[in-house]
Structure formats: C-alpha cells, structure tokens
Batch of 2 targets.
Target 1
Amino acid sequence: MSENVAGLRNIALAGHSGGGKTSLAEAMLYNSGTIKRLGRVEDGNTAMDFEAEELKRTSSISSGFHQFDWKKHTINIIDTPGDQNFFSDTLSCLQAADGTLVVIDAVDGIKVQTEQAWEFAGNFQQPCMIVINKLDRERADFARAFKEVSEIFDPKPIILQLPIGAEDDFKGVVDLISGQAYVYNEDGKAQKIEIPADMQDEVKSEKENLIENIAEADDDLVERYLEGEELTEEELRAALRKGTLTRTFVPVVCGSATQNIGIDLLMNLMVDSMPSPMDREPRAGTDPAGGEEIERAPDPDGPFSAFVVKTLADPYAGRLTIFRVVSGTLGSDGTFYNASKEAKERFNQLLTITGKEQKPATGAGPGSIVAMAKLKETLTGDTLCDDGAKIIYQCVDPLPSLISFAISAKSKGDEDKIYSSTVKLLEEDPSLKLDRISETKEIILSGQGQIHIETTVEKLKRKFNVEAVLNTPKVPYRETIKKKVRVQGKHKKQTGGHGQFGDCWIQLEPMARGKGFEFVDAIVGGVSPKAYMPDVEKGVIESSQKGVLAGFVCVDFKVTLDDGSFHAVDSSEMAFKIAGSLAFKKAAEQAQPVLLEPIMSVTITTPEDFMGDIMGDLNSRRGKVLGMDSAGRKQIIKASVPMSEFLTYAPDLRSMTGGRGLYAMEFSHYDEVPAHAAEKIIEEVKKSKEK
Ligand SMILES: Nc1nc2c(ncn2[C@@H]2O[C@H](COP(=O)(O)OP(=O)(O)O)[C@@H](O)[C@H]2O)c(=O)[nH]1
Ligand SMILES: [Mg+2]
C-alpha cells in the first residue's frame, strides 16, 4: 500500500455491460506486471470476474477491487457491473472512488445504463474520463462514438487522442498534446512512429481544438492562447489536470482492451489527470452526539474515519467488509467504533483486496480501500471511526426494488433454511428485500430485476446448499364497501341448559382510501351492557379479515355500534363476538363490496424510438400515463399501473427496448379493481379454493 496519499488513485470503471470494463482492468493489471497472463472474460480467467454466477454469464454481477503500481503511483481499480440488475452495488462502490473512467463501446455506443452510470459519477461530483473501447471491432467508429458522447454528456468531452487505423486494422493512437504517435505490439508494448501522412491534417486541426478546450481551464492560458502564444506541453498537461479535476471537461481517449492498444497511455493519464484523495473536498458528516455537521479532511494524522461500501458473505470464511478510509490511519489490527451501529469492533488483520484474493496489509491511510474479515456488527453503509472522534457519513441508500417473486423451498423442510440463508445474502446485497406477507402467507424476495433474483437463487444453492423455487407472487388484493347500511347481528342458540345470546345493531359505512378501520361505540343508556362492546368489536375485526367477495381482508370502513340487547343468563363474550361477526358479514354483503388492488407508481426511462411500444404496452396493462418529460435523448414516462399487471415488467421492458429501457417503481396506493377484472380475480380465487 502506498503511504503516500497524493500518490494514490481510486478509479472506478463504469458503463454499460459488455463495454469492456473487466477486460480493461485485466489489461491494466497485466501492463503493470501485477498479473502474468492476460485473461479473457469469455475464458472465465480474468482477475475481476471470478464468482460462479459471473463466469456462467461471462459478465460482472458484483464490483471487483484490485490494485497495481504504475509510474510510482498506486492505483485502486473498482470494476463495477454495468447491468441494471446489479446497479445498486455499482452505486455503492462508486462512493469509494475519486474519479470514474467511463467505458464506451465503439460499436454499440451509449446505452441508457451508460448514462445512468454517468449520472452516478456526477452525483458524487467525480472527475471523469472516457475511453472509447473496442476500436478493433468491425463497425467500430471513433468519430461516431465521440459525436454521441459529446451530444449526451456534460461536462464537455474533449478529444485527447486519435486512433491509427480502424476495425481490424486498428493498431495505435496519436497523443495530441505531445504530437506523438504509437503503435502496439501483441504484448501491449508501445513503439513510437511518425504520424501517418494521411493523418497529418486531422491531427493538426484536432490539436488546435484540444488546446483551445484545455486553455478554458485556466484564464491566464486562454489569454495567452488568444494572443497567439505557443503553450508548452507542461502547461497544457497541468491545465488538463486542473480542468478534469474541476469537471470543466472530460478527456476522451481511445483503445482496445483485449488487444491492449492504448492502455498504457490511459494508465499514464489516470496518474496525471485523475484526482488523488488529497484533491477531494473534506467529507462532510454528522456528529452523532449533537447532530451538527462536521467534516474530515484526508489527513493521515487526523482521527480515523471510514465508510463501508461492500460486504461479502461467505458461509465458511465469514463476512468480508470493504471500506474506504476518509481520514486518519489504521494499523494492521486493532479496534474501531462503528458509529452507525453504536458498537465497538475488533479486527485481527487489515486486508488488501486483489480480485478474488485478499492479502495482509500493514496499515491504511486516507483514500485507502481495504477490508476486514469476520466483523460482527458492521454492514454496508456503516461509518467506522475513532472511539474518541465520532462521526457518521451519509452513504447512498440501496436502489429501490423493481421486481418481486414468491420464494419457497424446493424440498419440504427447507423453508426455514431458505429464509435464514437469504437473510445472510441480504448482508452482501442490500438491494435485495425479503418480506413475509401475512395476507398471502408468502415470502417475497424483491430485487432489481429477474437476473438479479435468479443469481440470488443460484448463490443460495452454491453458498448455502439450499434450493429455492420462484413463483409469481400473489397480489395482496383487499376488499372494501361503498354504501352505508345498518343491520342486526343476532346469535341465539338454545342447547338444553345454558343457551347463547348476543344481539347487536351496527352501521357500516365506507371511509377514505387508506384510512383502515374504525369502531365507534354509540350505545346510549343501558340497552346492552358496556362489558360486551369489545367482544362485538372483536367479532367485526375477525370477520373483516375474510372479506365477503373473495376472502381478502376488508379495509377502509367504519362500524358504529348503536343498539343491542342481552339476556341475563345466556349472554356471554363468545355470543357477542359471534353476533358482531355475523353483523359485519351481513352488512358487507349489502354495502356494495368491491375489490381493491395495489397500484404502483412507475417511472420509465427510454430512448425515444421505443416510446410508441412502451405507451401501447402500458395501455394494455391498464396503466395510466401521468406525465412525460424528456432529458437529452431520453424520454421519461410517469405512470400508475396495477401491481398485478406489472409483476413481469422487467423482462418485458428488456425485450421491448433491447435492454435500453430502465424503470423504477414503488407502491403508491390501493384502488378499486374495474368490474370486469374483479370478476376474473374472484373466479380464480374460487377455483383455487375448490382444488
Ligand atoms: N474486440 C474487442 N472485444 C473486447 C474489447 N474489450 C472487451 N471485449 C470483449 O467484450 C466482451 C465484454 O467485455 P467485458 O470486459 O466483460 O465488459 P464489461 O461488461 O464492461 O466488463 C468480452 O467478450 C470481451 O472479450 C476490445 O477492446 N475489443
Ligand atoms: Mg465486467
């Protein structure tokens, strides 16, 4: 680990799945001599993709961490997943970085997922760089890809390099600042060449553009440039760094990760133009004692503070907690205070993460991304600090879930194991949610998408040896009534000696949506002894749990008990409870009962081309479009859609938009089911009961 904070670079790789992030990390590790062989994603032998679920899909599902030394600097690389299913982890791990390298596919261009990753980096105010990758592929086009990034991304992307050759023939790059051309051998080693004759003009004009752009970062330079003065390479490099760090612009470079072309120059740029932890503003947090805002600068001699970005759950090795140090210095073992959990913890060995392995670390200063094993209390999002200098940092929340499945055990007897094992997986994946729904008696597993849930089931099998089955969850329908009625509930039984007698009059009326249930005792005088009133209420509640239409819980009603009679000998608590229950059932049947269904509020983000299909599809799902908006080339649709129609939206949107559409949803409210749909639902419930 570098003791030198200014010599540290924490860089996240972000962008849509398949752009080449994992391959790029592999090339960097190889060039730095950290790994001896250049692995390939499709061969399943890269340093950053190693989990079984990643190897099976040849795609990252979880952020990988590694570090290497380059030009006397230490670079921590964070290889994030680009698939929306795993974006919550991407978002969390981006917090550990000081800068983000956005990887663009020179063939496929920008996808919505790339834009989302861009927004994540922007939210954290991170300086960014863009690499246009895969320039060796058929139909790769640097100019087209750059045009696209300049239309969409802000701060302004600026060209730093031009490719030499295209597609099959892509063999090197021209670095515009130095005016130097490089071609690469098969081992990623650069060799200087003359700028090819047919590129001279292009290089000249792009260099002028670049100088003009870079000068913008520095008023003094602009002035001198406009006066026609020649700026030195050193001045330009200093201004390039300044402009990148202040997010005035975003440098764009070109390369091929798998051919290892241009990657060494990119690594140089990460050192020269990306921030060290010292370049970041002090991090603000709150003092848990008084709640006021305090901050910590990246000072190795300051009080220790850090925040957790990721947790790995291993049934054998236990928990592995990955965190970023903000301030102070940590030894190789010791204790710390977890301010989020208000607990002291001890750790035995500080660890550096190198892909799937961990190595002992001697210590960690500001900016370090390190790990500890087997912590008891600490989870993702927690703040760790000195016992004597407490602070809590605000970390990002997991992304809200988008899809739910009912999860159950494949073999009988595994029910409890499914639940307890999934709870352990929640530790490493806070974007999963597990709920027991009393209304439907199901265990519901929710996550970011179908693939997210499927990989979770695979992990359950691999890590905990328990097999789960997924089903579409039952929709928690409810019932309510629409009319006001008054009825009598009378329970009278003469069975030899002691009889049973309970008698009450209730008024049943609707209440506003979401109001639940209210019981009013309006009995005046001594018509029926007060002592039995709670029993009538119990009867009403019990009966309302099984609605008259299809047995769903009945809500949003008010019951007023206004009359009744009793028998000195035969009346009992039980008899009045039964009377209350009968009264409710009778009243509900007369009060125009209807079904209610949960309605989700949905936000869909899509490229314009798919708008027509998406709107038509929403219509067929009984969706109501509430508004439309555009942001750049993206269209944003807000709609409300019944939950029952939206259970399988994730895969459907994926296929409608070729994976370019995104959506977010949350529960909004309950609403009446239209009559024709209600009939069907009631029919189905009856059928399933007959079975
Ligand atoms: N031809 C070519 N293929 C590449 C390049 N970079 C990545 N790939 C391939 O693209 C696929 C996706 O790469 P990967 O690194 O997993 O992308 P990620 O999802 O962004 O991590 C893999 O099959 C890689 O071998 C490149 O520069 N050129
Ligand atoms: Mg990857």
Target 2
Amino acid sequence: MSLPSPAADRTALVTGASSGIGAEIARELARRGHGVVLVARRVEQLQDLAGELSATGVRAEVLPTDLLDRNARAGLPDRVTALGLTVDILVNNAGLSTLGPVHRADAEAEQRMVELDVMAVVDLCTRFLPGMVERGRGGVLNVASTAAFQPLPGQAGYGGSKAFVLSYTRALGGELKGTGVTATTLCPGPVDTGFGEAAGFTAEEATDALPAFMWETPAAVARCAVDALAAGRPVAIPGQANRFSAIAAHLTPKRFLVPLLASRHPGLQR
Ligand SMILES: NC(=O)c1ccc[n+]([C@@H]2O[C@H](COP(=O)([O-])OP(=O)(O)OC[C@H]3O[C@@H](n4cnc5c(N)ncnc54)[C@H](OP(=O)(O)O)[C@@H]3O)[C@@H](O)[C@H]2O)c1
C-alpha cells in the first residue's frame, strides 16, 4: 500500500521536528512533495526549518507545542483544522531518555519521559486516526528504538517505553488492515543528534558503548523511515548491523542478556 498522495489541503504532522531525526523526516517527506506541520517547543528552529522547506515549494506550517501538556496535545487537531489542513500522515517522533538506575532516579523526570515517549504517542494516535480511517487513507509512523527489542538496564523506563511503542504500533497495524491506513514503527540504533547528550551521556561514553559501524546519520534514518512508511511496512530498523543486533537481542535468553547489558551500560558505571 502506498502513502496518500500529497495535496494542497493535506499534511504530515511531525512531532520533535525542531532537531535530529524529526527534522530529517520532515525534510524527507517534503522532498517527496508532502506538506508538513512541524511540532516541538523550540519555535526558532521550527521556523527556520519551515522557511527552508517552504522554499522548495511545499507548504510548511509551525505549531509550537509542549507535548508534555495534555491540554496542548488535545488542542492540536483543532489548530491543524484552523489552518485548513487534514492530517494524512502522523509522525510521533518527539522523545527523550533519562539515564541511570531507577533506584537513583528523579520520579518527576521518569514520569515526564513516559508522558512524552508513551502517553503523547497514544494520545495523538487516538486523536488523528479516526479522521484517517473515515477518509480511507493515511499513515502513522511511530518512532521507537532498537531498545524496544530487549530490556535496557541503565535506561529501564526508556527501553520499556520504546517496547510499548513497538507493541502498540504493531497492534495498530493489525487493527487498521483494510482501512487504507497503515502503521509503521521506526526502530533506530544510535544516531548522532544530541539525544544522548540530552539524556546525560558524554560523547565519549556514547561512542565507547556502541561501535562506529552501528551509528547511522539522521538523514539515512529518515530515508529508511519514509521508505517503510510509504511501503506500509510494520517495522523499519535502519542499518544492517542494527537489524542483526535487534534480532539477536530479541532472541537471546534474557537471563544472559540483561546482566551483560547491565555490566556495560555507561549509566550504571558511575
Ligand atoms: N538519537 C538516537 O540515538 C536515537 C536512537 C533511537 C531512537 N531515537 C528516538 O528518535 C526520536 C528523536 O530523537 P533524536 O535523536 O532526533 O533527538 P533530538 O534531536 O533530541 O530530538 C528530540 C525532539 O523531541 C522534541 N521534544 C522533546 N521534548 C518535547 C516536548 N515536551 N514537547 C514537544 N517536543 C519535544 C525536541 O524538540 P524541542 O526541544 O524543541 O521541544 C526535539 O525536536 C526520539 O523518540 C528518540 O527516542 C533516537
């Protein structure tokens, strides 16, 4: 199944579009002719990207939103409608991670992570899917991680959140069969975006923990994501090394894998 064709009154809403993978997914969609609605908190970055994409001839709108705010999330569909647009493509990409063992974690920070990585995904899918199904066309791309394929001591809540996104999106795909709407999970391995630094990794820790051949560029990840979305594939894992390690992690008995991961994770070495 292919993605809905681009049209003047149709758009792709991309969360976390102010940097990293989200900005590249917006660029990739725009390159394929889709208009975009860019959502995140940093207005200047969103406006710069909207300017860049508008110059290529697509319609690019900015809707600054704090996705941790439930009322702000609830208001998004009306704000898109007010622009005279319908959302044919929903990309739930905004995400964050905490770092370190749960017994030393800040309870508020852990809840903020689950609110963004899990609740916002569920919320926006629930709000935008009915319109897509009614129109008989659409695509959802939810961004998880290769961390979705195994428990991740040192980032327990993050790994659990991404496992939720993978399971949820696969289930959506089953529910949506025959509706004209598809659901795809993007599961990147390491990508140099500033995400690791925001979580609390030093650049050295990140590169030491994961070998160079596993790292993908944001642009390559976005291409892989939009190809999979366009093909209606349920799961996309950018890079052969990441596909291999995700399968291996999924299949390895967890009584062996979890202690090994715990012994190597930088967030547990401090
Ligand atoms: N980089 C990696 O190695 C990697 C690997 C696997 C999966 N991922 C996943 O890829 C996705 C994108 O991450 P990235 O690597 O591109 O990192 P990033 O550059 O840090 O991007 C995170 C995005 O989320 C947005 N965001 C954060 N809090 C928000 C909030 N409260 N409301 C609205 N937007 C918010 C940020 O925008 P504002 O700050 O402007 O709000 C930013 O645009 C995440 O879901 C992440 O889990 C990343």
